[in-house]
User: Which sequence fits this backbone?
């Protein structure tokens, strides 16, 4: 049985930033680059601990990727930090030519994924996974919680080639227990069932867990798989779990084009496995600016209820789906929408 | 695959002016099989490339070629100096050849070649920063073209290099006033080039880019600066080849067999003259 906490989840601050400092204590090849979002990307901790290895590149993402590529070519392992939108859209050509094509060990840390930012389309990385997944040599990771955020720097430090990582900004829920281990080579089967195969990445894991609980309480047997590595996808696990189920649902905090849903669809199709597939994510639309992220998760179909509804109707049920019944979070806690 | 900074790399340039002529001659021969190519870049940068190889310390200093189209001149010089195999140079731009016409990551000789314009100065600044972090005595030379100044990333990198006082970084800016759609000054006003770089915190010098002695001296003197340096080399894409028609497209010169023969004869005469 998977090592999981119960919602609402406790939250912690700067799990990644603390872990990067711990890793850099042991490894003097790690350098840290900031694109003028130092505190927001938790690397004020690194700047304080290792000022000589902290490189402020300013608001100049294209140059920052070129600098990182050159440092990586010279034996450093650069961790590059900014929001996911600015890490992937503006310097795409630079990532391709200075990082991905030469297969250099640059680690691109994109904070504030999808609609976790209420800051509007300019600040919402809804296409970063698709952009990075399309690049040869690139590994793409979307961590689910603070337990994984604490492990991701060490986990990717020695990956051959570049890595793009999505990380939630600010208060980060702790969903997994202390024994959970982030693995890059395997999707994590959290529960097994034969009605619904549910695949979730990143922040959608909390919603997927809640949906699986509700569906289970209505007598459905649900597999739930946490997929932190979207590329290279753990195809054997995806196909194996999907083959045991009647329908497949994917959930990602991203557009449904080019991310987890697409990757799973490709894997199933190439395996010759036909299953009704429902992809939860932004429906080929930009979102909008708002006051709160939960409003956007609900409005753009990234809620627990949306996952329940998708599984329910995919199974051919015509009656009203069960209600999500989310427990609201207190201050300092996290609940999915 | 030898790069100029590889340990054990070795060459010597007894006569940079003669090397510049040899670069032109070899570039004509490299372009000749296809009948067209980036000959104009070799013609405008021949003295810069010759001076670079005269000043760079083999096995130590590094060379970045930002506009990948210019790699033809570097290949030609390298073949002359024994750094690049004759056969490899002769396969320039052919199917399956590692010596690609638009230089890439995989290109031999230079430490870094960018195919997508405007990116090389960032790489050069990264190298210079890396040398500082590792306490290494190395210079970094970057070839940049004037058309690239239209790309914003060049100025991001220029600000970064000046802010971080990367004084071991020297840019050779080939101001040949040529880009795909025509003369740079008809498309975007990039002047005053020197004043722009100075405003960005660089030491900037305007020189005749076809005076190989002036380029060599400026390269040597740049190492005394406490700022990164840019040498603005005023050049022409037709320089040193009188037989080229006056209206030749400097970015992509057509070289039909009869013109190629005349070009070779002209350059051979000068080389041996």
Assistant:
């Amino acid at each position: 049985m998977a090592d999981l906490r119960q919602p609402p989840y406790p939250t912690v601050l700067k799990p990644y930033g603390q872990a990067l400092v711990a890793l850099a204590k042991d490894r003097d090849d790690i350098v840290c680059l900031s694109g003028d979002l130092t505190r927001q990307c938790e690397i004020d901790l690194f700047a304080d601990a290792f000022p000589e290895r902290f490189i402020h590149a300013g608001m100049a993402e294209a140059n920052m990727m070129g600098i990182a590529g050159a440092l990586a070519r010279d034996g450093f392992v650069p961790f590059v930090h900014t929001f996911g939108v600015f890490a992937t859209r503006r310097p795409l050509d630079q990532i391709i030519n200075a990082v991905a094509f030469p297969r250099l060990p640059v680690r691109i840390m994109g904070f504030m994924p999808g609609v976790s930012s209420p800051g509007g389309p300019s600040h919402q990385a809804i296409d970063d996974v698709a952009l990075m997944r399309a690049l040869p040599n690139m590994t793409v990771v979307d961590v689910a919680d603070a337990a994984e955020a604490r492990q991701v720097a060490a986990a990717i430090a020695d990956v051959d080639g570049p890595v793009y990582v999505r990380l939630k900004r600010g208060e980060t829920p702790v969903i997994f227990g202390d024994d959970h281990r982030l693995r890059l080579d395997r999707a994590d089967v959290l529960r097994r069932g034969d009605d619904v195969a549910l695949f979730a990445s990143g922040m959608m894991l909390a919603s997927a867990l809640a949906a699986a609980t509700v569906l289970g309480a209505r007598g459905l047997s649900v597999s739930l798989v946490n997929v932190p590595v979207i590329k290279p996808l753990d195809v054997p696990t995806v196909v194996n779990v999907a083959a045991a189920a009647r329908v497949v649902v994917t959930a990602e905090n991203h557009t449904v084009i080019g991310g987890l849903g697409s990757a799973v669809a490709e894997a199933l199709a190439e395996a010759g496995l036909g299953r009704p597939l429902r992809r939860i994510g932004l429906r080929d639309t930009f979102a909008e600016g708002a006051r709160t992220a939960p409003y956007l998760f609900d409005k753009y179909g990234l809620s627990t209820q949306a996952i329940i509804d998708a599984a329910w109707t995919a199974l051919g049920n015509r009656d009203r789906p069960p209600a999500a019944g989310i427990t609201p979070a207190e201050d300092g806690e996290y609940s999915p929408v | 695959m030898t790069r100029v900074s590889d340990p054990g790399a070795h060459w010597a340039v007894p006569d940079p002016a003669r090397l510049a002529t040899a670069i032109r001659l070899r570039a004509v021969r490299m372009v000749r099989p296809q009948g067209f190519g980036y000959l104009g870049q070799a013609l405008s940068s021949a003295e810069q490339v010759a001076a670079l190889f005269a000043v760079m310390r083999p096995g130590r200093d590094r060379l970045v070629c930002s506009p990948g189209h210019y790699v033809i001149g570097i290949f030609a010089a390298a073949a002359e100096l024994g750094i690049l195999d004759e056969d490899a140079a002769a396969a320039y731009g052919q199917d399956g050849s590692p010596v690609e016409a638009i230089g890439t990551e995989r290109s031999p000789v230079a430490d870094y070649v960018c195919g997508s314009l405007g990116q090389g100065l960032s790489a050069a600044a990264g190298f210079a920063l890396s040398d500082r972090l590792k306490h290494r005595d190395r210079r970094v030379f970057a070839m940049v073209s004037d058309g690239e100044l239209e790309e914003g990333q060049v100025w991001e990198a220029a600000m970064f290099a000046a802010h971080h006082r990367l004084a071991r970084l020297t840019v050779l800016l080939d101001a040949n006033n040529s880009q795909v759609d025509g003369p740079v000054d008809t498309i975007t006003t990039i002047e005053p080039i020197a004043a722009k770089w100075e405003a960005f915190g660089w030491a900037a010098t305007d020189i005749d880019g076809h005076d190989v002695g002036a380029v060599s001296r400026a390269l040597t003197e740049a190492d005394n600066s406490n700022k990164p340096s840019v040498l603005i080399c005023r050049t022409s894409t037709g320089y040193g080849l009188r037989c080229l028609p006056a209206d030749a497209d400097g970015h992509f010169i057509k070289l039909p067999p009869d013109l190629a023969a005349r070009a070779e004869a002209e350059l051979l005469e000068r080389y041996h003259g």
